[in-house]
Design brief:
alpha/beta, single chain, 261 residues
Length: 261
Protein backbone atom coordinates (compact mmCIF):
# COMPACT_ATOMS: atom_id res chain seq x y z
CA UNK A 1 0.00 0.00 0.00
CA UNK A 2 1.31 3.45 -0.91
CA UNK A 3 0.72 6.88 0.56
CA UNK A 4 -1.99 7.60 -2.02
CA UNK A 5 -3.89 4.55 -0.77
CA UNK A 6 -4.00 5.72 2.83
CA UNK A 7 -7.47 5.41 4.37
CA UNK A 8 -9.47 8.43 5.42
CA UNK A 9 -9.48 9.77 8.94
CA UNK A 10 -11.82 8.13 11.40
CA UNK A 11 -14.85 10.08 12.59
CA UNK A 12 -15.69 10.38 16.29
CA UNK A 13 -17.66 7.41 17.57
CA UNK A 14 -21.40 8.12 17.63
CA UNK A 15 -22.70 4.86 19.11
CA UNK A 16 -23.96 4.67 22.66
CA UNK A 17 -20.90 3.82 24.82
CA UNK A 18 -23.11 1.66 27.04
CA UNK A 19 -24.31 -0.43 24.10
CA UNK A 20 -23.55 -4.11 24.66
CA UNK A 21 -21.79 -6.49 22.32
CA UNK A 22 -19.49 -3.98 20.62
CA UNK A 23 -16.36 -4.62 18.60
CA UNK A 24 -13.98 -1.97 19.99
CA UNK A 25 -11.05 -0.95 17.77
CA UNK A 26 -8.43 1.65 18.66
CA UNK A 27 -5.91 3.69 16.72
CA UNK A 28 -2.99 5.97 17.56
CA UNK A 29 -2.74 9.64 16.44
CA UNK A 30 -2.25 10.12 12.73
CA UNK A 31 -3.35 6.66 11.64
CA UNK A 32 -6.54 7.03 9.61
CA UNK A 33 -8.73 3.90 9.60
CA UNK A 34 -12.07 5.62 8.91
CA UNK A 35 -12.38 3.97 5.47
CA UNK A 36 -12.26 0.50 7.02
CA UNK A 37 -14.59 1.38 9.88
CA UNK A 38 -17.13 2.65 7.36
CA UNK A 39 -16.91 -0.55 5.30
CA UNK A 40 -17.63 -2.63 8.39
CA UNK A 41 -20.77 -0.58 9.05
CA UNK A 42 -21.86 -0.55 5.39
CA UNK A 43 -21.73 -4.34 5.29
CA UNK A 44 -23.74 -4.45 8.53
CA UNK A 45 -21.35 -6.78 10.24
CA UNK A 46 -22.01 -7.73 13.83
CA UNK A 47 -21.17 -6.79 16.50
CA UNK A 48 -21.42 -3.01 16.15
CA UNK A 49 -17.98 -1.43 15.74
CA UNK A 50 -16.89 1.26 18.17
CA UNK A 51 -13.71 3.29 17.70
CA UNK A 52 -11.37 5.13 20.03
CA UNK A 53 -8.10 7.05 19.63
CA UNK A 54 -5.34 6.30 22.14
CA UNK A 55 -2.08 7.96 23.02
CA UNK A 56 0.82 6.15 21.39
CA UNK A 57 2.01 4.88 24.76
CA UNK A 58 -1.41 3.64 25.95
CA UNK A 59 -2.52 1.11 23.29
CA UNK A 60 -0.70 -1.86 24.87
CA UNK A 61 -2.50 -1.42 28.16
CA UNK A 62 -5.84 -0.96 26.39
CA UNK A 63 -5.37 -4.26 24.51
CA UNK A 64 -4.15 -6.13 27.59
CA UNK A 65 -7.04 -4.90 29.74
CA UNK A 66 -9.61 -5.80 27.09
CA UNK A 67 -10.73 -2.20 26.54
CA UNK A 68 -10.33 -2.80 22.81
CA UNK A 69 -10.10 -5.94 20.69
CA UNK A 70 -7.64 -4.56 18.10
CA UNK A 71 -5.61 -1.42 17.44
CA UNK A 72 -3.89 0.33 14.53
CA UNK A 73 -0.36 1.27 15.66
CA UNK A 74 2.82 2.74 14.21
CA UNK A 75 6.14 0.92 14.69
CA UNK A 76 9.83 1.93 14.56
CA UNK A 77 9.21 5.60 15.38
CA UNK A 78 9.75 5.99 19.10
CA UNK A 79 12.62 4.32 20.93
CA UNK A 80 10.34 1.96 22.84
CA UNK A 81 8.52 0.82 19.69
CA UNK A 82 9.08 -2.89 18.99
CA UNK A 83 9.81 -4.35 15.60
CA UNK A 84 7.09 -6.45 13.98
CA UNK A 85 8.92 -9.63 15.01
CA UNK A 86 9.19 -8.46 18.63
CA UNK A 87 5.56 -7.38 18.65
CA UNK A 88 4.44 -10.86 17.56
CA UNK A 89 6.04 -12.41 20.63
CA UNK A 90 3.20 -11.03 22.76
CA UNK A 91 0.49 -10.08 20.24
CA UNK A 92 -0.90 -11.05 16.86
CA UNK A 93 -0.24 -8.50 14.13
CA UNK A 94 -0.51 -7.93 10.39
CA UNK A 95 1.51 -5.34 8.48
CA UNK A 96 -0.69 -2.88 6.55
CA UNK A 97 1.37 -0.19 4.82
CA UNK A 98 4.54 1.91 5.04
CA UNK A 99 4.43 5.62 5.85
CA UNK A 100 6.77 8.16 4.29
CA UNK A 101 8.75 10.54 6.47
CA UNK A 102 8.51 14.24 5.72
CA UNK A 103 10.18 17.45 6.83
CA UNK A 104 7.71 20.00 8.20
CA UNK A 105 8.88 23.53 7.28
CA UNK A 106 7.61 27.01 7.97
CA UNK A 107 6.09 28.62 4.86
CA UNK A 108 8.99 31.08 4.47
CA UNK A 109 11.73 28.44 4.59
CA UNK A 110 14.10 28.47 1.59
CA UNK A 111 13.65 24.72 1.06
CA UNK A 112 9.96 25.09 0.25
CA UNK A 113 11.03 25.74 -3.38
CA UNK A 114 11.96 22.03 -3.66
CA UNK A 115 9.35 19.35 -4.34
CA UNK A 116 11.25 16.80 -2.20
CA UNK A 117 14.38 16.71 -0.07
CA UNK A 118 17.10 14.44 1.20
CA UNK A 119 18.14 14.44 4.83
CA UNK A 120 21.51 16.00 3.94
CA UNK A 121 19.83 18.81 2.00
CA UNK A 122 17.60 19.54 4.99
CA UNK A 123 20.50 19.62 7.45
CA UNK A 124 22.64 21.74 5.14
CA UNK A 125 20.13 24.59 5.33
CA UNK A 126 18.83 24.24 8.89
CA UNK A 127 19.01 22.31 12.12
CA UNK A 128 15.95 20.07 12.56
CA UNK A 129 14.36 19.65 15.95
CA UNK A 130 14.96 16.42 17.84
CA UNK A 131 12.56 13.70 16.74
CA UNK A 132 9.41 14.15 18.85
CA UNK A 133 7.26 11.42 20.35
CA UNK A 134 3.99 10.79 18.54
CA UNK A 135 1.99 12.48 21.29
CA UNK A 136 4.25 15.58 21.18
CA UNK A 137 4.12 16.06 17.40
CA UNK A 138 1.57 18.88 17.61
CA UNK A 139 3.84 20.96 19.83
CA UNK A 140 6.80 20.33 17.52
CA UNK A 141 4.80 21.65 14.55
CA UNK A 142 3.91 24.76 16.54
CA UNK A 143 7.62 25.34 17.20
CA UNK A 144 8.32 24.98 13.49
CA UNK A 145 5.70 27.63 12.75
CA UNK A 146 7.38 29.88 15.33
CA UNK A 147 10.71 29.62 13.50
CA UNK A 148 12.50 27.20 15.83
CA UNK A 149 13.32 24.86 12.96
CA UNK A 150 11.97 22.01 10.82
CA UNK A 151 10.73 18.79 12.33
CA UNK A 152 10.75 15.33 10.74
CA UNK A 153 7.50 13.38 11.12
CA UNK A 154 5.60 10.48 9.57
CA UNK A 155 3.42 11.97 6.84
CA UNK A 156 0.15 11.14 8.61
CA UNK A 157 1.24 13.10 11.70
CA UNK A 158 2.24 16.05 9.52
CA UNK A 159 -1.24 15.96 7.98
CA UNK A 160 -2.92 15.60 11.37
CA UNK A 161 -1.21 18.73 12.74
CA UNK A 162 -1.21 20.73 9.51
CA UNK A 163 -1.68 24.49 9.78
CA UNK A 164 -1.62 27.38 7.32
CA UNK A 165 1.83 28.66 8.34
CA UNK A 166 3.67 25.38 7.72
CA UNK A 167 4.13 22.92 4.86
CA UNK A 168 6.02 19.66 4.39
CA UNK A 169 8.29 17.94 1.89
CA UNK A 170 9.00 14.24 1.46
CA UNK A 171 12.40 13.01 2.63
CA UNK A 172 13.34 10.64 -0.17
CA UNK A 173 16.18 8.89 1.70
CA UNK A 174 14.43 8.44 5.07
CA UNK A 175 13.25 4.93 6.00
CA UNK A 176 9.52 4.28 5.87
CA UNK A 177 7.51 3.75 9.04
CA UNK A 178 5.35 0.59 9.25
CA UNK A 179 1.72 0.71 10.35
CA UNK A 180 0.19 -2.52 11.63
CA UNK A 181 -3.06 -3.89 13.05
CA UNK A 182 -2.43 -5.65 16.35
CA UNK A 183 -4.64 -7.70 18.68
CA UNK A 184 -4.17 -10.01 21.73
CA UNK A 185 -3.19 -13.65 21.37
CA UNK A 186 -5.69 -14.85 23.96
CA UNK A 187 -9.00 -13.65 22.52
CA UNK A 188 -12.02 -15.90 22.76
CA UNK A 189 -12.89 -17.95 19.69
CA UNK A 190 -15.79 -15.61 18.93
CA UNK A 191 -13.70 -12.43 19.28
CA UNK A 192 -10.88 -13.92 17.21
CA UNK A 193 -13.36 -14.70 14.42
CA UNK A 194 -14.60 -11.09 14.54
CA UNK A 195 -11.05 -9.73 14.32
CA UNK A 196 -10.27 -12.03 11.39
CA UNK A 197 -13.35 -10.74 9.58
CA UNK A 198 -12.11 -7.17 10.16
CA UNK A 199 -8.63 -8.14 8.94
CA UNK A 200 -10.29 -9.29 5.73
CA UNK A 201 -11.84 -5.85 5.23
CA UNK A 202 -8.54 -4.11 5.94
CA UNK A 203 -6.79 -6.32 3.40
CA UNK A 204 -9.35 -5.51 0.74
CA UNK A 205 -11.58 -8.59 0.79
CA UNK A 206 -14.78 -7.83 -1.12
CA UNK A 207 -18.28 -8.01 0.33
CA UNK A 208 -19.04 -10.96 -1.98
CA UNK A 209 -16.14 -13.02 -0.71
CA UNK A 210 -17.19 -16.31 0.82
CA UNK A 211 -14.64 -15.78 3.59
CA UNK A 212 -16.06 -12.36 4.37
CA UNK A 213 -19.69 -13.41 4.64
CA UNK A 214 -19.99 -17.17 5.17
CA UNK A 215 -23.34 -18.70 4.17
CA UNK A 216 -25.87 -19.34 6.92
CA UNK A 217 -27.13 -22.81 7.80
CA UNK A 218 -30.46 -22.05 6.09
CA UNK A 219 -28.65 -21.05 2.90
CA UNK A 220 -26.54 -24.19 3.01
CA UNK A 221 -29.68 -26.31 3.52
CA UNK A 222 -31.41 -24.72 0.55
CA UNK A 223 -28.41 -25.46 -1.63
CA UNK A 224 -28.47 -29.12 -0.63
CA UNK A 225 -32.26 -29.53 -1.14
CA UNK A 226 -32.43 -27.71 -4.45
CA UNK A 227 -32.80 -30.34 -7.24
CA UNK A 228 -30.61 -30.20 -10.25
CA UNK A 229 -32.21 -28.78 -13.35
CA UNK A 230 -32.85 -31.38 -16.05
CA UNK A 231 -31.87 -30.60 -19.58
CA UNK A 232 -34.94 -30.55 -21.92
CA UNK A 233 -35.11 -33.47 -24.31
CA UNK A 234 -34.70 -32.77 -27.99
CA UNK A 235 -38.09 -32.99 -29.79
CA UNK A 236 -38.52 -36.11 -31.85
CA UNK A 237 -39.13 -35.50 -35.53
CA UNK A 238 -42.41 -36.97 -36.74
CA UNK A 239 -43.70 -37.59 -40.19
CA UNK A 240 -46.13 -34.69 -40.15
CA UNK A 241 -43.47 -32.03 -39.36
CA UNK A 242 -40.84 -30.59 -41.63
CA UNK A 243 -40.28 -30.94 -45.38
CA UNK A 244 -39.35 -34.62 -45.23
CA UNK A 245 -42.37 -35.44 -43.09
CA UNK A 246 -44.65 -33.59 -45.52
CA UNK A 247 -43.34 -35.59 -48.49
CA UNK A 248 -43.74 -38.88 -46.64
CA UNK A 249 -47.32 -38.03 -45.64
CA UNK A 250 -48.17 -37.05 -49.24
CA UNK A 251 -46.73 -40.32 -50.65
CA UNK A 252 -48.72 -42.36 -48.12
CA UNK A 253 -51.93 -40.54 -49.05
CA UNK A 254 -51.39 -41.15 -52.78
CA UNK A 255 -50.71 -44.84 -52.14
CA UNK A 256 -54.06 -45.23 -50.36
CA UNK A 257 -55.88 -43.65 -53.30
CA UNK A 258 -54.37 -46.18 -55.78
CA UNK A 259 -55.49 -49.26 -53.88
CA UNK A 260 -58.04 -51.35 -55.82
CA UNK A 261 -61.40 -51.84 -54.25
Amino acid sequence: MTESDLPEAAQPHTHDPEEEDQFAVGYVPGVMPGKWFRRWEERRHKPVLSQQQFRADDWREALTNGDIKACFVRLDWEEQDPSLEELRQNFRAVALYEELQVAVLDQDHILTVAESLTTDELKAESTPQEKPATDDAGMAVELTAAGVGPVILPMSLARLHHRKDVTYRELTDAPTIPVVLVWPQDLSEEDEATVQQFVGIVRGRSANSGRDTPPSKDQEGKKKKQPQKQQPKAPQRRGGKGPKGAKAASASKNARRRRPR
